[in-house]
């Protein structure tokens, strides 16, 4: 069904691009999209999802290009180069790029920019669309899963950098645990690097040695190390959740769930809005809009039901997940 939805959205975008490109080659209305990615597009993770979205736009008729593994200090230069090259839509994939994107957008009001943020930014320029990644909302059902799945009453959270979005994930899990009424303790740690597999394995092992039998990860390539630690335990005695893409093949007997993300639908929707003259907006990723929680086959049915109930509650508004980006003490 998801594949069919993407085809439908792609068809809509193709019609819009065709209409806007009606002026012929070189038309000022021709959609030329440049993307800036924070890491390698071969990571089978966050940046790969960004590339998939960009490729969908290309298949629909847009001219596309991208830069990958761009560090924050270099993003202004990359943005300026794409402006100078005549790209009329520039997308920065990563909330760490927001400030630079907003700055360059203010200096180039004739260009449309798409930036990412966790929440709704103040002073958003009139030519910037924001993709709100809304991580905290999606991590609430993950917290519900952990609260119902743990046998020891101890859950570990393993993040990369201790950033505001990561704090919001921890607080959302804490809210889910509290709402569940379970006597469960959450123990968060950070490796200092989303891609350090060695450090992730070490910290995951420490969490397991401290009786945390569910490890919630918020990592990129570092999750491979976390899997190595968890899969050294007996099946059923230790579980792991992952983020962005399905990584269950790393340890199917220990895999609990994925906070799945998709940037194709958000990008398609925003490009459609831009072509309709809406140069500023706030697209919130959520269930049915770029986010899904996929639960592993080995997870008990009662735990799956609790997760489904949480997702439904968030979707229908009966559950409100607080956005709390305060530092975790």
Detailed description of the structure:
41% of the residues lie in helices and 21% in strands. The protein has 329 residues and is of the alpha/beta class. It has 2 domains: 2-133 and 262-287, 3-Layer(aba) Sandwich (Rossmann fold); 135-261 and 290-316, 3-Layer(aba) Sandwich (Rossmann fold). It has a 7-stranded mixed sheet with strand order 7-6-8-9-10-13-12, with helices on both faces. Helix 2 (46-59) packs across helix 9 (264-275).
Order of helices and strands: HEHEHEHEEHEHEHEHEEHEEEH
Named CATH architecture of the largest domain: 3-Layer(aba) Sandwich
End-to-end gap: 42 Å
User: Main beta sheet, described?
Assistant: 7 strands, mixed
**Unreliable residue runs:** 1-12, 18-28
CATH topology of the largest domain: Rossmann fold
Number of DSSP E strands: 13
What's the average pLDDT? 92
Q: Radius of gyration, rounded? A: 20 Å
How much strand?
Answer: 15-25%
Cα shape: elongated
Reading off the top of the CATH hierarchy, the class of the largest domain is best stated as: Alpha Beta
CATH-wise, what's the superfamily of the largest domain?
Response regulator
Number of helix segments? 10
- Strand arrangement, largest sheet? 7-6-8-9-10-13-12
Q: List the domain count as a whole number.
A: 2
The structural class is alpha/beta
Tell me roughly what share of residues is in helical segments: 40-55%
